[in-house]
Design a protein that fits this description.
25% helix, alpha+beta
Length: 162
């Protein structure tokens, strides 16, 4: 009986440890942005609706075009993430509503996951134009460049050298 209790405790401890270790590996589902309603989106008609009617029907846009405020964007995205990993997009809906100069709807185009662009930043350094110098050349690089001792050199704020 004692061996059975010892074995039961061991199995329980291993199961508890496995449960604790795998609890952090839960898949996280998330939704960000606009909550689309297909019936409402289908009612937006070019030539019939204007800015006010679109805002009453769909609500305020997720964002407005940065360079052209005649385009309203409604963005919706669903993602999955495993523990502390990077979220991966599962589904996306981007509705672009374009207006003419008078504020009437010209078009309403809907795109999906195909418009997601994957970018990879350039590590932890930003490439810049110009000289590439070492620490010591930055520290000691100006020695001897100003002029001989006792002589005044011309500078940007003292062009005559006096």
């Amino acid at each position: 009986m004692t061996a059975f209790i010892h074995r039961l405790r061991t199995v329980s401890a291993v199961a508890l440890a496995a449960l604790v270790l795998t609890s952090g590996c839960a898949r996280i589902r998330d939704h960000k942005g606009y909550v689309p309603d297909n019936a409402l989106i289908a009612t937006i008609a070019p030539g019939v609706d204007n800015r006010a009617s679109v805002e009453r029907t769909l609500g305020r846009p997720s964002f407005v075009g940065q360079f052209d405020d005649s385009v309203w964007y409604y963005l919706s995205r669903n993602t999955n993430q495993l523990a502390f990993g990077k979220p991966k997009p599962v589904d996306q809906m981007l509705l672009a509503v374009r207006f003419d100069g008078a504020g009437n709807v010209v078009s309403a185009t809907r795109t999906g996951k195909e418009t997601i662009a994957s970018i990879s930043p350039n590590g932890d350094k930003t490439p810049t134009l110009g000289r590439h110098t070492s620490f010591f050349s930055e520290l000691f690089g100006n020695i001897g460049r100003v002029g001989a001792s006792g002589q005044a050199a011309t500078t940007a704020d003292n062009p005559t050298g006096n």
